[in-house]
């Protein structure tokens, strides 16, 4: 019997591919007409538009291995060197994020007194033992209030679009908690771990970029990876196949599917839910209400993606990768990616492409606005923050009402109790961005791990 993988996002596709390359039959059941989930690249009027993720850090072995197995490794494209500059909009201006700790002391990204407070981090105390703190609590204890509301807030916004008062420090930035546990000071922990990693890289002769990973995509956008997975899986992928029910059988599962509008049943030895956690909750509710409630308890931040394309010469190429906006600035724009600076091939003939991410956990109201209103708001805020007033030749809006899962305080405990709850249901598994990492790399790593375990 086959493994039924429910959900054809990157997680489900990678899992099915891993199973099949290891000789285990698997089918992917995807509700919509296309696979990829959040990963969606659109070629339009000379622009390559990403509706979801734009890039990944090329340091995850599972991602490289996957790209190699699919024959698309040579199509990986690192960001232009110009993208090494990054900015935060704070105290009314775009300010450069220093690339090294010494640069930080002379940078104006924080006020003078806040920089002194950050130096005091070297003497900061460990947090209470065994308490899952919020990211903001951890930040304030170590870095002080200003660095927390400006720097830490901006960094988490770029990944989670979340609220640092609610996010779990350990679930979102485990490295920081590890630094605190092992070195007391985050700064000392970072310095020592960088030193150790440099030593290890030098001894195996690897490049320095192996330490941090290069921000990368594929020559045709991240859709290249999805297309290659879909091609490799062939008719094992069923699109327009929405799973509506799961029925446990003496050995395995009956999966109720609505495929091209018709009800179909499939018998599977194992079922993997690679769907958003609220969808998994809906499917499990008739079987196990407590398990469904735990899944439903994982909140999502809504996010709107607004692309603005500019004719060649209509606007100067902005410097750097882009900028992030801490919530304290009161903007609807969470951050802007200078796409045509970072990946010049994504805008043909010298065009300019900016992608604004808007809304997030603290401004869910923004995402509910209509498309014209979102474009107008993005342009108004960009003008105020960067002075950009040119009229775009292309605008495109994608809304994700449940964009990014939020690993709130208690997330790790919730995961442990989900794992315990799943033991009641042999042959039922979960993967996807709601559990062990929200990035594309995390999804690939978790699906690969599960694929190996099931195969
Ligand atoms: C705007 C945005 C920007 C992002 N930027 C980045 C970035 O730059 N870098 C990065 O690493 N990550 C980024 N991410 C995160 C990353 O894209 C996601 O975490 C990842 O793509 C999630 O993949 P998934 O397969 O786990 O889930 P999904 O992509 O949500 O896939 C789940 C699939 O399940 C299907 N489904 C739902 N219900 C059913 C059902 N009943 N039956 C069958 N199928 C069903 C859905 O249609 C969907 O295709 C971003 C996310 C968003 C939204």
UniProtKB/TrEMBL annotation:
One annotated GO molecular function: oxygen-dependent protoporphyrinogen oxidase activity
Alphabetical list of InterPro entries matching this protein: Amino_oxidase (IPR002937), FAD/NAD-bd_sf (IPR036188), Protoporphyrinogen_oxidase (IPR004572), Zeta_carotene_desat/Oxidored (IPR050464)
Protein name: Protoporphyrinogen oxidase
One GO-annotated biological process of the protein: heme biosynthetic process
Assigned EC number: 1.3.3.4
Residue span(s) of domain Amine oxidase: 10-449
Protein keywords: FAD, Flavoprotein, Heme biosynthesis, Oxidoreductase
Pathway named in the protein's UniProt entry: Porphyrin-containing compound metabolism
NCBIfam families: proto_IX_ox (TIGR00562)
Signal peptide: none
Cross-referenced Pfam families: Amino_oxidase
Required co-factors: FAD
